[in-house]
Amino acid sequence: MAESASPIADRMQCIDASGIRKVFDLAAKLADPINLSIGQPDYDVPEACKQRAIEAIRAGSNRYTVTQGDAALREAVAENLRSEFGSFDSPLLITSGVSGGLLLAFLATINPGDEVLIPDPYFVMYKHLVNLIGGVPVFVDTYPDFHLRADTLEAAVTERTRMLILNSPANPTGVVYTADELRGAADVARRHNLLVVSDEIYNAFAYDGPAPSAWPLYDRVVLLRGFSKTYAMTGWRLGYCAGPEPVVQAMTTLQQYTFVCAPAPFQAAAMTALETDASEYIDLFRRRRDLVYGGLRDRFNVEKPGGAFYIFPEAPGPSATAFVSRAVEAGVLVIPGSVFSERDSHFRIAYAADAETIERGVEVLNRLADG
Questions:
Q1: DSSP class per residue in 328-343
Q2: CB-based contact 174:305 (threshold 8 Å)
Q3: For residue 349, which phi and psi values (nearest 5 degrees)?
Q4: What CA–CA distance (Å, rounded) separates 211 from 176?
Q5: HSE on the CB side for 284, CA within 13 Å?
Q6: What whole-number distance in Å separates Cα of residue 98 and Cα of residue 226?
Q7: DSSP-based three-state secondary structure for 301
Q8: Which residues of 69-94 are buried (b: 16+ CB within 10 A; e: fewer)?
Q9: pLDDT at residue 168 is higher than 50
Q10: Structural domains in the chain plus CATH codes
């Protein structure tokens, strides 16, 4: 009898979650781990936003919205962007999270064989989505300080390059690109007619001054932002996209046949979020950034993050994965840098935890570094 064919598509071979899975397999054996692995805020959705969602549900806002998102929310987002940038006149699409926006943007613009420049380290989804679609990820080294360099971007461009992905403030490094770095990247993109996808989900989490955006620098930028991180709405799946009209239109068409629309009652709540002052959360995470950096800098080679809620120290020894295994066995959950990089030299700490948890985790990590 002939062996039956696998029911799993070949494209699934492009996706590898083994690095994170190994951490959580080890963690499953721990009774009370010090969790510094989770990339989401530890505070709750602001009460006013929760109330607005409840009111929307009770008022019957539970059906589909138009695919591109509720008109009132799109106008509120546009007004918010006009306030930030001075002017704003772009089509908008309300997405099911920034991750949903990434998938739509890649599906709409990447052909099989197209090369996509990805600064390394990178958010784990970029590599796998590009591979899934048949594109070719081209990693642009940013070690040791994780900042963009126009000359290294330029050197990575070939006749097949179609896109540059930017992420600032960044996951996993916490780096915030400077205005000059973004201008240099935009100049490279302009010379080669590249589409720039700028993932700015952490734009509110900038601790040493506002995070510059690529949006005003180039007319072929796809801007992706969302509500998940700033307002702790990670489970509400709500983001938005702005960009060149043909790209946003293509993404909207794809959304019609995939996500259909972003969750309706949460679109109503997002309007309240745009009116909510998040400064207390940013101040809290600034103090946590200072706490974790101050606790690690004497024993680890580590860059001080400017934003997001991650720090990316270099691991002692030849393998970050081996160090992370030791850390997890000692009760501290962190993620090996090989999940986010073509190197296995660093590890990611998410400091979305209270001060006591951070201090306990730092103490164990320092002890492991000494031993």
A1: HHTTEE-EEGGGSSS-
A2: yes
A3: -110, 130
A4: 6
A5: 14
A6: 6
A7: coil
A8: bbeebbebbbeebeeeeeebebbbbb
A9: yes
A10: 10-38+279-370 (3.90.1150.10), 47-274 (3.40.640.10)
Q: Which residues are CB-neighbours of 339 under 8 A, at least 6 positions away?
A: 19, 20, 124, 348
Closest CA to 69 of 321, 267, 313: 267
Can you say whether the dihedral through the CA atoms of 367, 306, 152, 39 is positive or negative?
Answer: positive
- For residue 211 the two structure tokens come to 């995070």
User: What contacts 293, CB < 8 A, 6 or more positions away?
Assistant: 302, 304, 305, 311
The Cα–Cα gap between 184 and 326 comes to 40
Q: Residue 1: its pLDDT value, please?
A: 47
Alpha-helical runs (H) found in the chain: 18-27, 47-58, 71-85, 97-109, 124-133, 150-156, 179-192, 245-256, 264-274, 279-296, 320-329, 355-370
The amino acid at residue 305 is: P
For residues 310 and 350, what is the distance between their CA atoms, to the nearest angstrom? 5
How does strand 332-333 pair with strand 335-336? unpaired
One-letter amino acid at 50 equals: K
320 alpha-carbon distance from chain centroid: 22
Q: Yes or no: say if 324 and 33 are a contact pair by the CB < 8 Å rule.
A: no
Q: Is 318 helix (H, G, I), strand (E, B) or coil?
A: coil
> At which residue do the structure tokens 């909207």 appear?
252
Q: How does pLDDT run across 205-221, given as a tens digit for each residue?
A: 999 999 999 999 999 99
Residues 226-285: pLDDT tens digits?
999 999 999 999 999 999 999 999 999 999 999 999 999 999 999 999 999 999 999 999
Q: Are strands 347-350 and 310-311 parallel, antiparallel or unpaired?
A: antiparallel
Alpha-carbon separation of residue 314 from 95, 240, 273, 296, 301 (angstroms): 35, 34, 37, 10, 5
